[in-house]
Write a sequence for this structure.
């Protein structure tokens, strides 16, 4: 069924000083990221905070965050094209753009953090198909192809009938992609904090949280820039959805920890994460659960939040901050806890066995991560200026046939 | 428009003339030990990269360590010593690998990982177990 | 005249060559291991699955504070310490353990376990981390992209990452910035009928805590010993079928 019939779209036309300033700022971020990546490649990883104990650091936190958000950012397009919810149809193109932009940003950070980024061509020609990483290479590049195809179905009027099938394909692909991303950790038998089937669905739900929050902020900003305002009903509905997704994420997190707490074998890790993990414990309880969870509920569903648009913005920002903390706790916290090779014994060695590993983010790592964010936003911004993504209709009255 | 074309043309001619005048020194490096290489010189010049690429998979994956195309063996003959009798890295300027690679402008990254000189004192595990005449000759120079 | 100067005297060179080779072999001979590995492999024969290399660690013979195996390994492979120990590569390290309930202490070397179903091999996206036919798990550094996923996956924390530019590598252990490395069971020695450096050092010092050999051969020292004394795999519940077995812990 053709979408966008009767909808009109335009490029972002307010290309004034503010736009140029934004582009300049983002280019600056990208330059910072490039400089950081170059420094890391020339000097080696000794200039970062990563060690033989914490092998994945801040760049991976940024990259996983961006990739998971990218998958979820396409959710509004899925709601429109797969589930046929009319109020989101004008926003489907924006959703596709943001998804592609975020994924590209995340991928660039991931690739530039490799020990040998110049060997990317090796990674694209030698495959070990038992590795979920190898599958992810296909899933990530395939996602971009499908998302571009999805957008093409929108832009080309004659292809309008294919929006739904391609949209369904994109929906399935992003669920598989996010499952694959979660399984990177879920498949690791070595570490107490991983080795759990729940990582895959947890990441799917996290993608819904990050993606919806990112999309809300992005769409509201785009409309503001084009001189209109995103329909309040759309904003409220998406904000409510965000709240439901945050609740689901908290639920899965609770199940994960409660199960671990029942299993004596995992008590060491749980004690570390929930009680004595220092920064990890603080990030988990204060930022992930309180700020990114409970406070989001308070903002959305109590008078605390204020008017609907402000609720949505504050809740989205909180959800993103909480989500970043969640990714940090999963990636860094999971590595910080020592491997249990000899249960019941205290271990020590010259290789930091038996002790909680310390990690502090370094400037090159943060620079690289921010460069990726800058790249994602720049891609989105440039896309808005060259192709008609901004709907004219969702600004005002959107007939909600779905109820 | 014509002025721009003229400028571009003049700059291009100047660049080419300068490049043609510039002298790239021909490769020169210390003589190698031993009587002859494991392959004829002209074959080595054309094919050494193929030999190394093929041999590395044989060695790493299948444990085949024939000295013929082993990079470690190349170093046995092709590294020179300095005044104090210490081996010089073969990828240092003026040394065997680097001289030709600089001349031809081909970057090599072998020695980011591989040792660029033999050990100062040989080890039993590096020793002459295969009886290859090239290795025997090389071992005598220590 | 050839490239190297005047026409060489071939007869003289042959004599010098043979005399020198004999002298070299006599000089080097004391370093040759006295233990005979059953299958002597020649250079041009590929490794085969008929062999499965393994190591037996007798932790009762390991003294706390003894690092002979570690020192020998560092020396063999040219591993150096830097100002930041958390970045230093360690192929083998001594683990000191203390039972929380009984207070008994143990000391033992921990190294790559060369698992039959190694998690590091499973997760490597390019297949750089692989298991050789004879059971040795290696990193093909030509294909390693430095993603460090294998380091996340290893249940024994056996792998190290090279965090900086290196210059003084030793000939038989290529190692470089941006790739992952770990114990190779001294494949370059094993392929030439020698033992890993750690085993040789431990034996030479008289501790006899490490035994290396072919686990597929029922008559090898390691197989005979493993039938007599109790051995176990570390993290045996993971069912990785490790090549390194421990006695006394």
């Amino acid at each position: 069924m053709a979408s966008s019939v009767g909808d009109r779209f335009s490029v972002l036309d307010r290309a004034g000083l503010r736009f140029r300033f934004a582009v300049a700022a983002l280019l600056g971020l990208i330059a910072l990221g490039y400089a950081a990546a170059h420094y890391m490649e020339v000097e080696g990883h000794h200039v970062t905070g990563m060690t033989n104990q914490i092998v994945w650091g801040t760049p991976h936190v940024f990259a996983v965050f961006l990739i998971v958000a990218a998958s979820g950012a396409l959710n509004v397009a899925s709601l429109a094209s797969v589930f046929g919810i009319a109020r989101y149809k004008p926003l489907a193109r924006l959703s596709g753009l943001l998804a592609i932009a975020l994924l590209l940003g995340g991928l660039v950070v991931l690739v530039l953090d490799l020990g040998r980024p110049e060997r990317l061509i090796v990674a694209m020609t030698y495959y070990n198909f038992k590795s979920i990483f190898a599958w992810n290479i296909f899933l990530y590049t395939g996602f971009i192809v499908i998302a571009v195809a999805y957008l093409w179905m929108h832009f080309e009027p004659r292809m309008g009938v294919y929006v739904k099938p391609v949209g369904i394909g994109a929906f399935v692909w992003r669920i598989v992609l996010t499952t694959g991303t979660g399984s990177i950790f879920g498949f690791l038998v070595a570490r107490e904090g991983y080795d759990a089937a729940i990582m895959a669905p947890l990441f799917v739900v996290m993608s819904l949280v990050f993606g919806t929050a990112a999309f809300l902020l992005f769409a509201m900003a785009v409309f503001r820039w084009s001189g209109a305002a995103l329909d309040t009903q759309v904003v409220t509905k998406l904000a409510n959805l965000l709240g439901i997704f945050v609740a689901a994420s908290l639920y899965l997190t609770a199940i994960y920890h409660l199960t671990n707490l029942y299993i004596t074998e995992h008590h060491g890790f749980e004690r570390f994460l929930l009680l004595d993990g220092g920064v990890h414990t603080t990030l988990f309880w204060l930022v992930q659960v309180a700020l990114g969870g409970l406070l989001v509920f308070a903002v959305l569903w109590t008078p605390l939040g204020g008017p609907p648009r402000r609720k949505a913005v504050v809740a989205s920002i909180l959800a993103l901050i909480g989500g970043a903390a969640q990714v940090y706790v999963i990636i860094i916290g999971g590595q910080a806890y020592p491997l249990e090779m000899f249960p019941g014994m205290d271990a020590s060695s010259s290789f930091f066995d038996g002790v909680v590993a310390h990690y502090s983010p370094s400037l090159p790592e943060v620079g690289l991560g921010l460069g990726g964010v800058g790249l994602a936003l720049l891609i989105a911004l440039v896309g808005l200026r060259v192709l008609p993504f901004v709907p004219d209709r969702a600004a005002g009255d959107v007939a909600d046939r779905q109820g | 428009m014509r002025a721009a074309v003229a400028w571009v043309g003049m700059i291009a001619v100047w660049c080419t003339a300068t490049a043609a005048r510039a002298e790239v020194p021909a490769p020169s490096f210390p003589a190698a030990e031993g009587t002859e290489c494991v392959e004829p010189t002209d074959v080595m010049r054309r094919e050494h990269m193929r030999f190394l690429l093929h041999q590395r998979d044989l060695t790493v994956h299948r444990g085949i360590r024939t000295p013929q195309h082993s990079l470690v063996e190349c170093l046995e003959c092709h590294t020179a010593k300095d005044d104090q009798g210490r081996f010089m890295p073969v990828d240092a300027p003026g040394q065997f690998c680097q001289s030709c690679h600089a001349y031809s402008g081909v970057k090599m990254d072998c020695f980011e990982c591989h040792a660029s000189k033999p050990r100062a004192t040989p080890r039993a595990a590096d020793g002459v177990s295969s009886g290859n005449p090239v290795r025997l000759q090389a071992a005598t120079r220590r | 005249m050839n490239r190297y100067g005047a026409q060489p005297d071939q007869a003289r060179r042959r004599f010098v060559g043979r005399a020198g080779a004999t002298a070299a072999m006599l000089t080097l001979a004391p370093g040759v291991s006295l233990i005979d590995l059953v299958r002597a492999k020649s250079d041009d024969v590929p490794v085969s699955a008929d062999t499965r290399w393994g190591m037996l660690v007798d932790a009762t013979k390991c003294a706390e504070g003894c690092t002979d195996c570690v020192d020998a390994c560092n020396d063999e492979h040219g591993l150096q310490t830097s100002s930041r120990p958390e970045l230093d590569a360690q192929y083998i390290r001594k683990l000191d353990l203390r039972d929380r309930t009984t207070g008994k202490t143990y000391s033992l070397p921990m190294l790559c376990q060369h698992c039959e179903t190694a998690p590091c091999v499973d997760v490597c996206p390019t297949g750089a981390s692989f298991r050789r036919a004879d059971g040795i798990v290696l990193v093909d550094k030509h294909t390693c992209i430095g993603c460090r996923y294998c380091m996340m996956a290893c249940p024994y924390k056996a792998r190290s990452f090279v965090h900086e530019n290196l210059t003084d590598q030793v000939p038989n252990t290529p190692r470089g910035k941006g790739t992952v490395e770990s114990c190779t069971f001294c494949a370059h020695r094993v392929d030439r009928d020698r033992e890993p450096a750690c085993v040789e050092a431990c034996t030479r010092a008289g501790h006899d805590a490490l035994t290396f050999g072919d686990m597929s051969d029922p008559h090898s020292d390691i197989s005979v010993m493993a039938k007599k004394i109790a051995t176990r795999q570390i993290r045996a519940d993971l069912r990785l079928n490790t090549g390194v077995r421990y006695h006394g812990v």
Observations:
- Chain A has a mean pLDDT of 93.
